[in-house]
Write a structure and sequence with these properties.
Oligomer: single chain
Strand order of the largest sheet: 5-6-4-3-7-8-9
Structural class: alpha/beta
Strand content: 15-25%
Order of helices and strands: HEHHEHEHEEEHEHEEH
Helix content: 40-55%
Number of helices: 8
Radius of gyration: 22 Å
Length: 235
């Protein structure tokens, strides 16, 4: 198996979107399964068909990162997987802290998606005295008191915020006090205010659900319009 090592991303930040990164992650997951199954070659059309993406989009995404495949031959599965993994991988393993051990926080700690060679959740933080000092899914829960010092001691640079909305900003302010946090994955339904240089990605499940329901409603209306047009044409 080819050794995976991180390499620089040959792009400016504004040249690659979050959607593109999401597709690159999907390509990597697909290729991991194909490599395990012993596949040697794959085409952009095959990748697109398996993931429901246009082959032209697949080629465009991969072209951002260099020339991987050969026209008429396709992509080497191990080589393409190595190239994608080396670009997506961090130069060092990210250490993550989870703030807020409610039901969502506990569920995320135990979720297999957060077990990776690229990052690890090393600690949780909460204000509940009954949880502080205990381990949850193998991670110790620390007090919010002195959180910035604990973050420094544990080498944490990324936070996942799952606190109630009313407590989110104050929790983030306390965590950022030491200046060690570079990024935040925010599951709390509030917009966080952070210093320049700290990246924030919001994950609002209710908004995503509303977007899905809107698309379903729109699709249903389009089907009714199409059905009405067909009926009129028959008449």
């Amino acid at each position: 198996m080819i050794e995976r090592t991180a390499r620089p991303i040959p792009l400016k930040k504004n040249e690659i979107t979050d959607r593109t990164v999401g597709r690159l992650v999907a390509y990597r997951r697909l290729l991991q399964g194909l490599e395990e199954a012993g596949a040697a070659l794959i085409s952009s059309k095959m990748i697109g068909d398996m993931l429901g993406i246009k082959s032209s989009q697949v080629r465009k995404d991969l072209s951002y990162l260099g020339e991987f495949g050969k026209r008429g031959v396709g992509y080497s599965v191990p080589r393409l997987l190595n190239d994608l993994s080396s670009i997506l991988a961090p130069f060092a393993r990210w250490r993550i802290g989870l703030v807020g051990l409610g039901r969502l926080g506990e569920a995320l700690l135990g979720h297999s998606a957060f077990r990776s060679d690229d990052y690890e959740i090393v600690a949780a933080f909460d204000v509940d005295g009954a949880k502080i000092g205990r381990s949850f899914a193998g991670r110790k829960c620390y007090s919010m008191t002195g959180i910035s010092e604990t973050i420094r001691e544990l080498g944490i640079s990324v936070l996942m915020i799952t606190t109630p909305a009313a407590a989110s900003q104050s929790a983030v302010d306390a965590a950022l006090a030491g200046g060690h946090i570079k990024g935040i994955l925010n599951f709390s339904p509030v917009s966080l205010t952070v210093p320049q240089g700290v990246e924030v990605n919001d994950v609002d499940i209710s908004v995503e659900l509303e977007k899905l329901l809107f698309r379903l409603k729109f699709n249903d209306q389009q089907r009714k319009v199409s059905a009405g047009l067909e009926t009129n044409m028959v008449q």
